[in-house]
Automatic annotation (TrEMBL):
<dbReference type="Pfam" id="PF12704">
    <property type="entry name" value="MacB_PCD"/>
</dbReference>
<keyword id="KW-0472">Membrane</keyword>
<dbReference type="InterPro" id="IPR025857">
    <property type="entry name" value="MacB_PCD"/>
</dbReference>
<dbReference type="GO" id="GO:0005886">
    <property type="term" value="C:plasma membrane"/>
</dbReference>
<dbReference type="InterPro" id="IPR003838">
    <property type="entry name" value="ABC3_permease_C"/>
</dbReference>
<protein>
    <submittedName>
        <fullName>ABC transporter permease</fullName>
    </submittedName>
</protein>
<feature type="transmembrane region" description="Helical">
    <location>
        <begin position="312"/>
        <end position="339"/>
    </location>
</feature>
<feature type="transmembrane region" description="Helical">
    <location>
        <begin position="268"/>
        <end position="292"/>
    </location>
</feature>
<dbReference type="Pfam" id="PF02687">
    <property type="entry name" value="FtsX"/>
</dbReference>
<keyword id="KW-1133">Transmembrane helix</keyword>
<feature type="domain" description="ABC3 transporter permease C-terminal">
    <location>
        <begin position="272"/>
        <end position="389"/>
    </location>
</feature>
<keyword id="KW-1003">Cell membrane</keyword>
<feature type="transmembrane region" description="Helical">
    <location>
        <begin position="359"/>
        <end position="380"/>
    </location>
</feature>
<dbReference type="InterPro" id="IPR051125">
    <property type="entry name" value="ABC-4/HrtB_transporter"/>
</dbReference>
<feature type="domain" description="MacB-like periplasmic core">
    <location>
        <begin position="18"/>
        <end position="201"/>
    </location>
</feature>
<keyword id="KW-0812">Transmembrane</keyword>
Length: 398
């Protein structure tokens, strides 16, 4: 313990150099922690939102755009498709479930989605308050929407035309909130859900008689399909793409492509972190070598008082260990704080959910990595301290 206390005192006898080494090592570890937290949370969130969805069908366009718009609600859809497509696909023996989505309006940036109760069942959502919609212009709020807008069951609101927050409001046909969902951690938390008829009522298909005559003209935006058999993965996308105006997007393929694109950014950050760690290791090495040179007299005195050579070398190594322990704590705290800050920023943009409370199993390796780097940097200075010739030092002129 006394050796550790002496190493602590030696460490802070050069506060500027120690703080610089601590900052470099902490930043490198924070960057590594931040990359691990963000990549794991993004992957978990994307997989959670994709659960049970085997194919997304939309209007002709980019499959990636269709998946981002239909599953994660992060992009604009490629267009609308006829409502008859729903009937056709439900008649396919390879389709186990087809869930229609109708987009077009939003509430303060949160999308209003016309759909069926099966969409809630897809994510095993439960009501926290109220009930599901029973008629047009009744809405159920996701947990995040309810929290950030302050709307409650019984309140009314007007949706804005378009998927941004600057669209014209449908002030003449307000929605009534009839239910609020429990938080699921999925995309449902960021959505306002209503009946398909609500979207049609606000976009030109109004009046019972008119609706009856215009039933073939009604449109939806997308369909989320679940396969009944793995054979559907081979034939159904081909069948969809052969239909005029329809485009199939396979989430498994598009997600893999998305991860590859995101992976490039993660690799850049990881490379930056490695550069910082190597720079910090070099800085620790230079600092400890300098310290050993400055303290040759003190170390020689320790040897004369009976300290064996290994204790003198351990004293130098313990300085690096103290530095590694401090940097591990600071780096992990900074990494989580950065993840929390990014999560708050994304929440303001109604985007993906991130947070600083997530703990990655790989973070347990951070203190080990810091110790390994610090001890590797201290190896040469400790060897120099171990090989000090006390007689020569005492005879040398000062």
């Amino acid at each position: 313990m006394r050796l550790a206390a002496l190493a602590w005192r030696y460490l802070w006898s050069r506060p500027l150099a120690s703080l610089l080494n601590l900052a470099l090592l902490s930043l490198g570890l924070a960057a590594m922690s931040f990359v691990m937290l963000c990549s794991e949370q993004l992957e978990a969130g994307l997989r959670r939102d994709l659960a049970g969805i085997d194919l997304v069908v939309g209007a002709k366009g980019s499959p990636m755009q269709i998946m981002l718009a239909g599953v994660f609600h992060l992009d604009v859809p490629t267009g609308n498709i006829p409502l008859q497509t729903l009937t056709q696909l439900r008649a396919q023996p390879l389709v186990a479930r087809a869930i229609p989505l109708a987009l077009g309006d939003s509430l303060r940036g949160y999308r209003i989605v016309g759909t069926e109760p099966d969409y809630l069942a897809q994510y095993q959502a439960e009501l926290a308050q109220g009930a599901l919609w029973q008629q047009p212009l009744q809405a159920v709020l996701g947990a995040e929407v309810a929290r950030r807008t302050g709307l409650r069951v019984g309140d009314r609101f007007a949706g804005s035309h378009g998927l941004g927050s600057e669209g014209e409001a449908h002030a003449q046909r307000p929605y009534q909130v009839v239910g609020v969902l429990k938080a699921t951690g999925s995309v449902l938390d960021r959505l306002v859900l209503t009946d398909l008829a609500s979207v049609w009522a606000l976009h030109g298909h109004e009046g019972d008689a008119e609706e009856a005559n215009a039933v073939d003209e009604r449109e939806i935006t997308m369909l989320l399909l679940s396969y009944r058999s793995p054979l559907a993965a081979v034939s159904l996308p081909r069948w969809v793409n052969a239909q005029p105006g329809l485009q199939a997007a396979a989430p498994a393929l598009e997600t893999a492509r998305l991860f590859r694109m995101l992976g490039v950014g993660a690799e850049v950050l990881r490379g930056f972190a490695i550069v910082l760690l190597l720079a910090s290791a070099l800085s620790v090495l230079v600092g400890l070598l300098s310290a050993v040179r400055e303290r040759q007299g003190d170390l020689a005195m320790l040897r004369m008082l009976g300290a064996p050579a290994w204790r003198v070398a351990a004293l130098v190594s313990l300085e690096a260990v103290w530095l590694a322990l401090l940097a591990s704590g600071l780096g992990l705290a900074l990494g989580h704080a950065l993840a929390e800050g990014l999560g708050l920023l994304l929440a303001e943009q109604q985007s993906l959910r991130l947070g600083g409370a997530w703990w990655s199993a790989w973070e347990w390796a951070v203190p080990g990595l810091a110790l390994l780097l610090a001890l590797a940097s201290a190896a040469w200075p400790a060897w120099r301290a171990f090989r000090l010739d006390v007689t020569e030092l005492l005879q040398s002129p000062r």
